[in-house]
Design brief:
The structure is a single chain. This protein is α/β, with parallel strands linked by helices and 266 residues long. It is built from 8 helices and 5 strands. A 5-stranded parallel beta sheet has the order 2-1-3-4-5, with helices on both faces. Strand 4 (121-126), helix 6 and strand 5 (165-168) form a beta-alpha-beta unit. Helix 2 (40-48) crosses helix 7, helix 3 (66-80) packs parallel to helix 5 (101-117) and helix 6 (138-162) crosses helix 8. The longest helix is centred in the C-terminal third of the chain and has 36 residues, at 227-262. This is Anti-sigma factor antagonist. It comes from Kibdelosporangium persicum.
């Protein structure tokens, strides 16, 4: 696992940061000793803090889709007029039966342009191949891979059109190591969140922002969860969630399987 290198000390001191998105943005997978989650947001805020703390807000919530970010989270973020905004969202859309790439594109364009209009540096993510860390039956794996491909195409297009920074999780060093993932294999572990924060810090450094406290990949400050805790979480939370979301994806997976049996259209 390599440590991302930062450009020479930037000239811009970031003083405000907001995080928008879904459960990964919330920090699931990186529990705190006193309860709750830490995640990429606080880790990045610490990296950006110099002589004074960065004003930080996390308006994300679990289960959020791109439309939720536009209608619910964006107004909260704009009220803060942040210098930097991190956007991690889209996977919940890929798991739903009403997945619509063009609607996602319209929502993402609106969010990015609205934030940039108040002078915010916007950073997004493009997603990795979940099938490499989470085992799924063949049809479901192909269905999810197809959806993620369509989502990433939207994210690539919007990021390029608006010159938004984009962290490619597929190319992030160590992204496919099991230690980077929590027990559910859907959310990053503490190490995974540190890797995300480090990746975002590198993007900000490239844009001339100062990173006074580079992100360490040495885990500390979080709550270590034992095997029993992992099993309880998986049974109580993980499997029911996968069942609910999987039911939405199954019809699409079946259509892919049927098309495969039928062969290419003539």
């Amino acid at each position: 696992m390599t440590v991302l290198e930062y450009a020479p000390q930037g000239v811009r001191q970031v003083r405000s940061l907001v995080v928008l998105g879904d459960s990964t943005a919330v920090g699931l997978g990186d529990p705190l000793p006193g309860g709750g989650w830490r995640g990429v947001g606080p880790l990045l805020a610490d990296a950006l803090s110099g002589n004074e703390s960065v004003r930080f807000a996390n308006v994300s919530f679990t289960g959020a889709r791109m439309g939720c970010v536009r209608t619910i989270q964006l107004p909260q973020a704009l009220a803060m007029a942040p210098e930097v905004a991190i956007l991690i969202v889209g996977m919940n859309d890929t798991l739903r039966s009403d997945f619509d790439a063009e609607r996602i594109r319209a929502d993402l364009e609106h969010v990015v342009s609205a934030l940039q209009a108040v002078g915010t540096i916007v950073l997004t993510v493009r997603f990795h191949d979940h099938a490499k860390v989470f085992r799924l039956p063949g049809p479901l794996r192909r269905a999810l891979r197809s959806r993620i491909g369509a989502l990433n195409a939207v994210i690539d297009s919007v990021s390029a059109a608006y010159d938004a920074g984009c962290l490619d999780l597929d190319l992030l060093p160590g992204a496919y190591e099991m230690s980077a993932w929590s027990v559910d294999r859907l959310h990053p572990s503490e190490l995974g969140h540190r890797m995300l924060a480090q990746g975002f810090a590198a993007l900000l450094s490239d844009r001339g922002c100062a990173i006074p406290n580079p992100v360490s990949l040495t885990c500390s400050g979080g709550r270590q969860v034992g095997t029993a805790g992992h099993v309880v979480w998986l049974v109580v939370k993980g499997i029911p969630w996968l069942w609910r979301r999987g039911r939405d994806l199954v019809p699409y997976a079946l259509s892919i399987m049927i098309k495969g049996f039928a062969g290419p259209a003539r």
